[in-house]
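Cross-check.
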Amino acid sequence: MDEHVYANEAAIAREDDAAFQLVDSLRARAKDEGLWAPNLPPEAGGTGSGFLTYAYLNEEIGRSTWAQYIFGCQAPDAGNAEILWEFGTDEQKERWLVPLVAGEVRSFFSMTEPDVAGSDPTLLRTRAVRDGDEWVIDGHKWFSSGADGAAFAIVMAVTDPDAPRHERATQIIVPADTPGLEIVRPVPVFGHAGRGWSTHCEVRYNGVRVPADNTLGGVGAGFMIAQKRLGPGRIHHVMRWLGQMQRAFELMCKRALEREAFGSRLADKQTVQNWIADSAAEIQASRLMTLDAAHKIDAGDEARVEVSVIKFYAAHVLHDVIDRAIQVHGALGITNDSPLATMYVMARSARIYDGPDEVHRMVVARRILKAFEAGERWTFS
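Predicted model, tokenized:
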């Protein structure tokens, strides 16, 4: 990170041809040094050894926006690889998982739609209808992250609208060059359209035909697989946020000690001291909750409540710590001469993707109240 990632952040952020060549060379170095795909076990082609270890790694990887891509553990490919590993057939693993984990191709996950609430996947309108040995897919998606230049998609589509709500959808693997699949545009996010992996695309499926053998995990299993994917995905994000928080915190403290105004250092101002103290407490709380969730997942627990708690709590802390750091930096903090501006944009998005704060609060409250309704108590562990 010190030698190769931070030193090249400005060059990579230009997202031109030279930047992509530089990223490719750094990815090759990460592979050579045995640091590739730490989210997956060796038998799946990665170098991982469990959630807890991955949490510690992500405290470093998460400090830089592009580092997850350099180390081969980037969203959405990481989540796609994990569900292909768990639910894919041998043929699907050979064709799609192997090159994906090797970093030879990219993928995208196509679930969110512009016309229905993204927080409720049971509302999806994209349809997949069987025609002999094929699926025919029609629908409109957006925020299909990384779709620009990807080799394939995993598409969430309704296959039985009359089934129970959580059994209506199926996940289907769709090669990106299939006729009828149209990448409409990268959707600009806070003015940034991105390129390649950094895009969030609008995608249309117009009579897209793929073999029924491209079904992932069985017909009607789409919602269940999505939950299996999104749960680990949420904690992956939070792990990286820990790194972002800590980097912003370090920048804030250093700036406060260096900068003077009205006769004293910023570090001597009570307001700035309060920001530093509050940030330290909130980062440590986020960190310990994240490590607790990772430990429980390693022990076989899905840790749904723990993951939802850290998703909304850590997103809030991430935003506030970066905001305070920007304030201490003054005008410099909102320029691209500092990493804080990019970090701030991504922090605001964190409160929406993979479930908005409000949904995760609802999940936590419902689980707790359900225990009390059953005459039990809620145990903090």
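The longest helix spans residues 222-258. The chain has a mean pLDDT of 95. Passed to J.P. for a second look.
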